[in-house]
Amino acid sequence: MFLYNITMNLSAQDRVKQTEKITYICMFGNIALAVLKILTGIFGASAAMIADGVHSFSDLVTDIVLLVGVHLGSAPEDEEHPYGHGRFETFSSLIIALVLILAAFWLFYGGVKAVYASFKGALLPAPYYISLIMAVISIIAKEAMYRYTVRVGRRINSTALISNAWHHRSDAFSSLGVLVGVAGAMFLGPKWRLLDPLTAALVSLFIAAVGFKIFKMAVSEFLDASLPKSSLDTIKKVCLSVEGVQNPHEIKTRKVGYRAVIELHIDLPKETPFETVHTKMSEIEEKLKAEFGEGSIISIHPEPLP
Question: Both ends of the chain: CA-CA distance in Å?
Answer without folding.
Answer: 38
